[in-house]
């Protein structure tokens, strides 16, 4: 039922833009491929920040004596909190950029994992505001956290937040290459549909 409602919202946007003379360009990425390429996009940030952490903060790091099950519980807790905030920031970005508030945003829960999508077509700059909001806010926040309290928790938080933003960076790279178009978030796949005026695709 929820998937049908998501598709129906997208179909309305799609039909409205086609009626106005727009042609669509599908820029969606299979979820498995998006995960792998997303990690590749995030890896340079993780490596550089990891090296800086080792050089600048290791001597005063607050390293927790956790291993085995305790470590995995800690790691999963960091992931759970980070993912919720990550998706919330997508929503905040699109709510502001669209000018329509929360009406423009849809939150989903699939396989116990939250996700966020934009329900309206946006200009490139506005779409990117929502896509990159978690990378900007959580990325900077994680760096400040490590600087203020270097250690196990802050380092794991930094790694999780940058890797989680990898797929967003991948999508943003595609968006930067688009011309003058409107962009609609795909309701079920990673990526988007770009809408160009007829003859400009």
Write a concise keyword list for the protein shown above.
201 residues; alpha+beta; 4-stranded antiparallel beta sheet; two-stranded antiparallel sheet; 6 strands
Description:
It is a single chain. The protein is of the alpha+beta class. Helices cover 62% and strands 17% of the residues. It contains six helices and six strands; from the N terminus they run H-E-H-H-E-E-E-H-H-H-E-E. It has helices at residues 2-19, 31-56, 68-98, 124-148, 152-164, 166-176, and strands at 22-29, 105-110, 113-118, 122-123, 182-185, 190-197. The strands form two sheets. The protein has a four-stranded antiparallel β-sheet, with helices on both faces. A two-stranded antiparallel ribbon has the order 2-3. A hairpin with a 4-residue loop joins strand 5 and strand 6. The two termini are 34 Å apart.
